[in-house]
Structure formats: structure tokens, C-alpha cells
Amino acid sequence: MRKTLNPCPSCGGEGRLAIINSEKAVVVSCHDCGVMARAIEYKDHLSTEDILAAIDAWNDRIGIKEGR
């Protein structure tokens, strides 16, 4: 199953996935304005489910621009 990242709700910019090994977390943030979604922590190894959860955290955020 392939998921795409929605545009940033603040500025419409591109979301990018980042793996933060020192924190054992994966997070999506906006390349343009820096807005971040909730980081998803992982245990020993990063899994596909962790990455999908990070994408969901980004895509399911309330849109600031739309006033939702």
C-alpha cells in the first residue's frame, strides 16, 4: 500500500519524511515552513507500520489554512 503526503496545511509546501535515529523516531515536516507533525517513536527497528503512522500523523492533522 502506497501513501502520499498531503501538502502542508499552513503554507501548501511539500511534506518530507525524516528518520531521527538518535531519538528513534520518524516524523514528517514541511520543507518550506518547518511545520511538523507528531513524531512516531519506534522500538528497536523502524518498520513499515512506523513510517505509515508518521504519514498518517501528517495527513490527519487539522488544516490551519482551512481553519478546521
Please give a handful of descriptors for the protein shown.
18% helix, 68 residues, three-stranded antiparallel sheet, globular, disordered C terminus, alpha+beta, 21% strand, single chain
Radius of gyration based on Cα positions: 12 Å
Compressed to H and E, one letter per element, the order equals EEEH
* Tally of contiguous helical segments: 1
Low-confidence stretches: 64-68
Count the strands?
A: 3
Basic shape: globular
The whole-number mean of residue pLDDT values reads 88
Instruction: Give the N-to-C terminal Cα separation.
Output: 28 Å
- DSSP strand content: 15-25%
Helix content: 10-25%
Q: What summary fits the major beta sheet?
A: 3 strands, antiparallel
Strands ordered across the widest β-sheet: 1-2-3
What structural class should be given to the helix and strand makeup? alpha+beta
Structural description of this entry:
There is one protein chain. With 68 residues, this protein is α+β, with helices and mostly antiparallel strands. The protein has a domain at 15-59. 18% of the residues lie in helices and 21% in strands. The protein contains one helix and three strands, in the order βββα. A three-stranded antiparallel sheet has the order 1-2-3. A hairpin with a 4-residue loop joins strand 1 (15-20) and strand 2 (25-30).
